Amino acid sequence: MNRFERFPEPQGEAEIRYLDGEFRILRPGSFVRCAVTDQQIPLDELRYWSVDLQEAYADPQAVLKRTMELPKSEG
């Protein structure tokens, strides 16, 4: 390969392990799906996720919607 050739972009849905402030790609792909809207999120645009639920979110509104759906913890 020379410097002008590009590696092919992985296609399909990626499998991700969501960590605090970062994520690890377990299976290459070009996107993940929002857990609330089922919208495709390109990996380079992924900004919102839950470490506890291991879910990705398309935008802050999806995060809020998921948060409102969760049962309140007693304590």
List keywords for this structure.
75 residues, alpha+beta, two-stranded antiparallel sheet, 6 strands, DUF2093
Strand content: 25-35%
Q: What sequence of helices (H) and strands (E) makes up the elements?
A: EEEEEEH
Biggest sheet strand line-up: 1-2
* Individual helix count: 1
Low-confidence stretches: none
Give the averaged pLDDT, no decimals.
Answer: 88
Count of the domains? 1
Q: Distance between the terminal alpha carbons, to the nearest Å?
A: 60 Å
Q: Quick one: biggest sheet? A: 2 strands, antiparallel
Bin the helical content.
10-25%
Number of E-type strands: 6
The dominant shape is globular
Radius of gyration: 15 Å
Structural class based on helices, strands and sheet pairing? alpha+beta
Textual characterization of the structure:
- This is DUF2093 domain-containing protein.
- With 75 residues, the protein is of the alpha+beta class.
- It has one domain (15-69).
- The chain has one helix at residues 60-69, and strands spanning 15-19, 22-27, 31-33, 40-42, 48-50, 55-57.
- The strands form three sheets. A two-stranded antiparallel sheet has the order 1-2. A two-stranded antiparallel ribbon has the order 3-4.
- Strand 5 and strand 6 form a beta hairpin.
- It is globular.
